[in-house]
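Forum: Protein Structure Q&A
Topic: Joint prediction for protein chains with partners

I've read a bunch of threads here and the consensus seems to be that you should model interacting components together rather than docking separate models afterwards. I'd like to see that in practice. Below is the full input, 546 residues plus whatever partners are listed. Could one of the regulars post the assembled result?
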Amino acid sequence: VSAHSDRFQYLQALVTEFQDTDSAEAKEQVLANLANFSYDPRNLSELRRLQVADLFLDMLTEDNETLVEFGMGGLCNLCLDKVSKSHILASGALNLVINCLSSHREETVLSAVTALMYLSCAASHADITSAPVVECMVRFSLSNNRRLRNLATIFLEDYCSEQQVREAQDLHTALGIPLPHSTHT
Amino acid sequence: MAAESGVCLQVEVQAHHEQKRVCDSRAKYRDGRRPRAVKVYTINLESRYLLIQGVPAIGVMKELVEQFALYGVIEEYNALDEYPTEEFTEVYLLKFQRLQSARVAKRKMDERSFFGGLLHVCYAPEFETVQETREKLQDRRRFVARATSDKARNAPERKPEATRNTGCPFESSYPESDASLAHGSSYNSQLQHSSPTKSGSTVPFARIPEFNQSCTPHSFPILSDSNPVAHKGNFQQTTEPWPLEKNPQTSIPIQTNPSAAGSNFLRFTPRTTQLQERQRKREHRNALALCGSSSDNQDIVIGPKLPEMPKLDMDDPSLNMSADFIRDKLKKVGGTPLLPKLHNAAEDAQAEAPKKQRRRI
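Posted by a regular:
Agreed with the consensus. Here's the joint model:
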């Protein structure tokens, strides 16, 4: 039996357990497994067949913040794959990712910022750099949390025009998007 | 930069530094060999910076850095005096030159005992500068682009079949949307153009370890890297995934020697060229044998594995024998491969030792 079909069966077993189990704990564990597997491009074809991108997207609307965090992490790992990327964009899930920017969990927000950068393309660019998002990034770029600050700075410098940033800076005093809790406070 | 590194050393305990509780409730089929916590790794969490906690405060910084340097070049290291520690332990920050080295070092050194203390090693991305973070994200982008485009090139006819087999509507809807996006995307096309030129100089040597180890922060049962041979073959696997998957019976055995396999495979070469090539290789091998260095250069040097020490001919059988003895001893003592620097030192010592012996005689 080839390594690939082994891998497929294993991943399939994970997806099946994820769908069948009633245990929240098992769900989190399996989701974490799948998200971590998404990091390795060698698993991409299997993960596509199993529609794991949709599984991750479903998690973004969960109440359980851990599921949201792991789902967003999985998307962040997966979305550099062109096929998954176009699927995510085509299913109109960009808003779900953007919503994660206002999560209280540090890793969720970080994954969302990175995923947005990775999901950017000619078709999605306007949505990804919409005024509220840019404004949010301006706030993040002033955060004490260095990881968040770095990512937001890259977002503003590499993906937004100067004008967009200027407009967002003017706006940012008006709106109050909460920063994620810094973990050490 | 100086100011930057000053800022760098502001230290705070972060959530991802804490050792999470090991998960002991995993179903058996997904329970790995090593106990692990439930955690998702993303490129955000990984870093060339490693935080080493639990180092016994007995002045072993040099030993610590030497130990970690086995996994790659360390650019900077610092003791973090401000960082809260357990009693009698210290915390260090190491910055590797390459992310891949940090990955391997973390995997190998986390939870290892070191001078009587148990090390806890974690990534410390909060020490990255904006530029370092940017490069990390770009590297990941390039890496995935390369890995996936390799697959696409090798299996252009595979897609429709997969759709038929699995009857999966999800996949069949991909090609058109994918194409439209790929063509419209400035980022994508930019990537396609930049990746070959940019990485041209470093391919394949610098890239291969990434292929091999890309799964390392998350070691799972089926991706376990206990087998170094299979590991080396992974590059091949990534480039030729389809035939392997499609037909197990005719599956190509995993190549242990990437350089030997691919190069002449597809290109037609006339008989005379082949003979010349063979002749050239033979001569090359002979030349190497004469120099006394190990001839098998087919092995690509990956990570901490360094080329074997050249075997010097001491012009005297008894001297050769003692040189061999010393070499063996060094290998045993070293256990793990030596650094280039240590390497030279070892060679010098090796050259010197027999001389001293002779003087005694």
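Chain A has a mean pLDDT of 89.
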